[in-house]
What we know:
The chain is of the alpha/beta class and 182 residues long. The chain has four helices and 14 strands. Strand 9 and strand 10 form a beta hairpin. It is 31% helix and 34% strand.
Amino acid sequence: MKNHRFKLYCIFVLFSAFTQAEDLVVAPGQSIPIKTSSGSRIHLANGKIVQIRDTGTMIYLTGKQLGQTNITIGGQVHKIFIVKPSTLITYQKIKKELEHKKGLILEISEAIPIIKGELLRFDDWIDIVHSIKEESEIYSFEAAISPLLQMEIKEYFKKLFSEQNLNPPAISTAPKVQLFLS
């Protein structure tokens, strides 16, 4: 029994040593600094996507072309996404908006910002929409929505359309909010 516990402990320690760090999102030509300790091992999965400049205590990652890769720095794995400048702006605005919102998290997949988690307040969604209204980039809202908030969302859209003298759309909230215009 002790031998099994020891093996599980070793696997846990090994797994813990390689932790997933925050995603890094940059545009081609943009550089971002990452603090490192002297002598940290650095491994870049794809040098065609990102260029590295190591200064000893800091490394600078510069996006070369659109794509995704990983970099391991001292056992910490970072996903790096190189996206269009307009996608980067949308991502940064959403990230800033989510800093003080509970329940929602921001990810990126296939160069599209994705909001996940759980929407706890309808006003949080409104704030996000207003923060990026000037942007034309696509983002995906995949957060869970409680039945009570689903009703509030339906009422919001009905009111919004009727204020513009438009026929209210058919609205579906499962599995995600969709408006069907006729």
